[in-house]
C-alpha cells in the first residue's frame, strides 16, 4: 500500500471519528430536550390556539408586536426555572424556601388558586374540541378528558408525557405552518368597506390583559420547568448548557408559534365579519374552519384530531405541572418528603375542583378562559418578583446570578406587568 493511500485512509478514519463525535453530541443534546418542549406544549393550548388566533381575527396584525414584546419581557422570569435548577440541582420551590418560609407559602397559596382555575380552562377547551367527534355534552366530555389525563399521568409517568408531547408538537406545528403558508397565497377576504378596530380602547383592556396573562404561559410554569428538569435528570445526564438550550428552544418555539397563530386568524378571519363565539362547541367548529378554509374541507377532521391532541397534551401537562408544584410546595412547608402517592392525590383533587368550576360555567368557554387568563396576569407580578429575587440573591454563586442585562430586562418587565395590572384595575373600578 502506497504512502498516499495510507494517509488517505488515516484521514478518512479521522473524519469518521469526528463525525461520530458530532453525531453523538447532537444525539445527547436532543435527548436532553424535554422540559422546554413540555413548557411549550402547556403554552400553546389556550394562549396560542385561543388568544393569539382571536387577536388576529379581531385586530389583524396590530397586536403582533405586543405578543413579541410580552414574550421578551417575561423571558427573565421564565428562564429562572431552568437556570436555577441547572446551577443548584434543586427546584425553584427549594429556592423560595431558602429565601424564607413566607415566600414559599405565598407561592404555594397563589399556585393552588391558579391550578384549579387553569385545569378547568384547558379541560373545557379540550372537551369543546372533542364535541367535533363525540356528540355528548361538554360537562360529560370534560370528565372523560380529566379521567384520561389522570390515567396517562398515573400509569405513564413523566417518560410517556415527554415522548407524547414531542410527537404532538411536531404535528401541530407542521400543520399550522402549512395552513398559514397557504393562507398568505389565498385571495383576500376583507370586505371593501371594512375598517379594522383599534385594540387600544378601554373596552378591550380585559381582552388585552387576558391575552398577556397567558402569553406565552403563566409565570408559575417556570416552577414546572424546574421540576421537569429534575425528573429528566433521573434518566439522562443534563449539563447546565443543555438545560438552558432546552429552555431557550422551547421558549423561542412558543414565541414564533404565537405569531403563526395570530397570522392564521388575521389572514383567514379578520375582516370577514365573523367573530368567535363564547360557546365552546361553536368556538371549536370556528377554529377548525380556519384551517379547513385554506387546507380544504377534506382536511377538517385531520386538523380537528391534531388540534384536539394538542389541547389534550396541554391539559395533561397543566395537571402534571401544577400538581407537582403543589405536592412539592405543601410538603416542603410541612417539612415532609413528597411521594408519588401524594402526587396522585393532588392530581385527583385539582381535577375534581377543576370539574366543579367547569360545571359552574356551563359550557361558556371564552368567559372561563378570559377569567383564568386575567387571574394569571394579576398574580404574575408576584411570581415574577419571586423569581427575580431568587436569581439575584446571594444563595446563588455569583456566576449563576443574573447580570446587568437580565436585571435591566427584568426591571422593564416588572414595570410593564405592574402598569397593565393597574390599568386593568382602573378599568373595572
From TrEMBL:
Protein name: Nramp family divalent metal transporter
Membrane association type: Multi-pass membrane protein
Main location: membrane
Stretches that traverse the bilayer: 29-51, 63-82, 103-134, 140-160, 167-184, 204-228, 249-269, 301-322, 343-361, 367-388, 408-426
Annotated organism of origin: Shewanella eurypsychrophilus
Protein's cellular compartments: Membrane
Entries under NCBIfam families matching the protein: Nramp_1
Keywords (A to Z) from UniProt: Membrane, Symport, Transmembrane, Transmembrane helix, Transport
Classification via InterPro entries: NRAMP_fam
